Amino acid sequence: MIGPDVAGIAERLGLAADTATATGQLAAETGLDVDAAYAAQTALLRRRLDRGERLVGLKMGLTSRAKMAQVGVDEVIWGRLTDVMRVPDGGTVDVGAYIHPRVEPEVAFLLDRLPAPGEPIGDFREAVRAVAPAIELIDSRYADFTFSLPDVIADNTSAASFVIGPWSPVPDGLENLGVLLEIDGRVAQVGSTAAILGDPRRALDEGIRLAGRHGVRLREGWVFLAGAATAAVPLRPGAHVRAVVEKLGTATLRAS
Length: 256
Ligand code: 0L1
Ligand code: MG
Fold this sequence. Notes:
- By secondary structure, the protein is of the alpha+beta class.
- The chain is 25% helix and 30% strand.
- The chain has a single domain, classed as Fumarylacetoacetase-like, C-terminal domain (Fumarylacetoacetate hydrolase, domain 2, Alpha-Beta Complex).
- The chain has helices spanning 6-19, 27-30, 34-50, 65-71, 124-127, 149-154, 200-212; strands at 55-61, 77-82, 86-87, 92-93, 102-111, 128-138, 159-164, 178-183, 186-192, 223-228, 233-234, 240-245, 249-255.
- The strands form two sheets. Strands 1, 2, 3, 5, 6, 7, 10 and 11 form an eight-stranded mixed beta sheet that branches. It has a five-stranded mixed beta sheet with strand order 4-13-12-8-9, with no helix packed on it.
- Helix 1 (6-19) crosses helix 3 (34-50).
- Pfam families: FAA_hydrolase.
């Protein structure tokens, strides 16, 4: 049996991102399943690498109930981060470069020495050199931000851009830190790092396990976005966004 046209799907999603133009869902019409969707995500990454981008990390998606409920998909997923997606802390993004951007507050890890595939993380402080507050800017390439599980995986889990705040050494507890998302000085979302799989450290175990199933091994020096602590909020032109994570500090982004 001939499978879905993974390269064609990646091209369609890549063009949608490059031109900030939404596309229709693809999985139902192409028979895309989860494995083929990760293959399409890899082809989408290849498209970026071929134009000179560098793979710098991995992100987890749908690690909280709030996020799952927001998009109607209830499985933890993962995607790829490249250097071009990174916006400096306090930097500005052009809303017009995206289709329907949303922002969400996250916790980022700077990876250090990771266990061999299949091995559990022994000492978290050996596996993670530093932690930081972060903002993820997501932008589904599908019309109306509506998709199935394989659709969103192929679309690199809606990854678009990200901001990392100041790195700090790993604090004693990460499992119940208060999280705020502020837009223009007003609180837009309130949460806790407990919303991220009960403890964001668990997201790293899941990332190693789930990416490993598709032959992807996390690397020392990579950034790892553990997931959002709250639902995502639409990003409007002119907005000033702050993600505040207790003990870790603040990451900021402006939209033009
Ligand atoms: O980072 C995320 O949790 C996004 C996962 C994909 C679903 C969405 O676009 O919200
Ligand atoms: Mg996210």
